[in-house]
Amino acid sequence: MQLLMNSLQIAAAYILFSLGLTLIFGVMRMVNFTHGEFFTLPLLVMGVLVPVLLGANVPLVATYALSAVLGISCTLLLGGVIYKFALKRFQRDMTGSFVVSVGLSLLLQGIFLELFGGVPSRLPTLIEGTVNVLGAYITLQRLVITCCALLVAGALCWTIASSRLGKALRAVAEDHEAAMLQGIPYRRIALIGFLIATGLAAVAAVLLSPVTVSSPIIGNDYLIRGFIAIVIGGLGSIPGAILGSVLIAVIESVGGYYFDPTWATITMFALTMFVLLVRPKGILGHG
Which residues 6+ apart lie within 8 Å of 54 measured at CB? Predict the structure, then answer.
């Protein structure tokens, strides 16, 4: 039960991150390597702002709230700029989007390193205490983080499945030309989808900020695991992204406990290669 609880809290963050990746791929048919920087920026902003506000005697909860709002806002602004001036021109162009997003990722990492420095930092604990859930012990802070992440993921799944915006996103992902013939504004829907994906990465970072170390390159770790999750589950498939995230979280938790974290990582890559050989579209992929 303890390993199951550990897997759940790891999976919750991976789900939010990989949902953003798969949403961008499904709507715009491109691979976005700057997604890791959308996760990094809120952590860096909060790493600077939280100590400043605490030094000004602002309450801890208000400090986190204000820092989170600013971090998410900065990330959405960055995402909008990158979309408008770079990635907008490479929609449905896998090669072009790959080259441009990799270059932008390296550029942003250099900028972050120059602005925020390379020393890792950790924020103070937001919620104290430990609870027992069905015989498994988990800190109250991690329990709240896991519940919030799952609620956000659930809200997104409902939006995609039931709302008017979700239907437009699904129509564009299925056939953007047919969707435009039905009066759906493809470019506006693509922008909205990109900003939603950017916001998911930022929200994941904000939720994890009290329990993770921030650095200018931390997004790389989540980017690798996010891509593994969507490749295993199926590119462009939201249920596939969730399934892939859960699988790699279980491998990371169970493998790290019984063996070594290195072997857990090797197992993830081995599973990815196996899925690509047996089912290139992913377990739940459609195309």
Answer: 60, 63, 124
